[in-house]
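INFO  loader      accepted 1 record
INFO  loader      residues=379
INFO  predictor   begin
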Amino acid sequence: MTVIPPGSTIGIFGGGQLGRMTAQAARTMGYAVHALDPAADCPAHAVVDRLVTAPFDDAAAAADLARHCDVLTLEIEQIAPAALEAAQKFAPVRPAPAIIADVQHRGRQKAWLTRHGFPVGPYRDVQSPADIAAAVAEFGPCFVKSCHGGYDGRSQVRVARVEECADAWRALGERHAVAERALDLDREISVMVARRPSGQTVAYPPALNHHTNQVLSWSVLPAPIPDALATRADEIAVGIAQAMELEGLLGVEMFCTAQGELFVNELAPRPHNSYHESERACHTSQFEQFVRAICDLPLGDVGIVEPAAIVNLFGDLWRDGAMPDFTPALALPGVRLHLYGKTSARPGRKMGHLSVTGRTPDDALANARAASAVIGLVI
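INFO  predictor   done
INFO  writer      dumping tokens
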């Protein structure tokens, strides 16, 4: 039996904002929630029934978490394989540790996608400055990204000339990396797909995303893109989830080029920042869907109720550590404030987001811009 019914206990590796919002959805559905995180004051600590404070590579702590849970999942990919394997001895881990291992390593992730026939942009594995130079000679300007760790623009360097290769290699810690051809981008989209252990699979409509310095600034759902492109993006995401026999959620980030090509950028086997607006836009939020998927419950309706957009709120707004005045934004129709309960703010740290609705995706985005402007945030 794969169903984990309400009243059971869900364990989450990671207590960041994604863990917090997943726990809130799980508690609404009648589940108890335990989590493991290195920080005792992590965002999820206030909403879980039990927090195990330990590093993500602590196999004994992972086993302790699992002994008290009926199913386990994660809100961050950087969980040590040994910890996931230790937990799996006591309760199912969804998505499976083998999926996490492939996603954790950029090179293996791209190789898996290529092997299974999914579109990725031209790239090379690189393990030296000479390898980077060869990629630049073949592709022209490249983004060189470390295979391990790094997200939100971290652990990647743009290289345009051979003379820059040695510095790029040092900047990435002289570690195994991939060099990706710099694409002529038209837009960036993502698709969230859910699959339960018994096989039912659903894909949300694509979201349109905008990044500043490689970090998501805003997102709108549904993406105002041609129907054919949306259909193709959903087909790719569903195909990936089915090929890997996913149990849970998979965020699929994609690049759309000016030439009309569609390439998979990265995979995230968990809730995704670009689908926070699903809480407003869809019948079923990504967080409720996550709970349904890992517990093998019938998946929820992903249809659009009303277009919605989100704007990320970074620590830069917390000048001298003081809470910003959100009153002007909350005075606007349809604006909601979502704060993550983080105890310290620093530039670039995601502290929360605003969510806004509209009659159309363009209206939702315009309303998000207006809400941002009144608190001094330009998007």
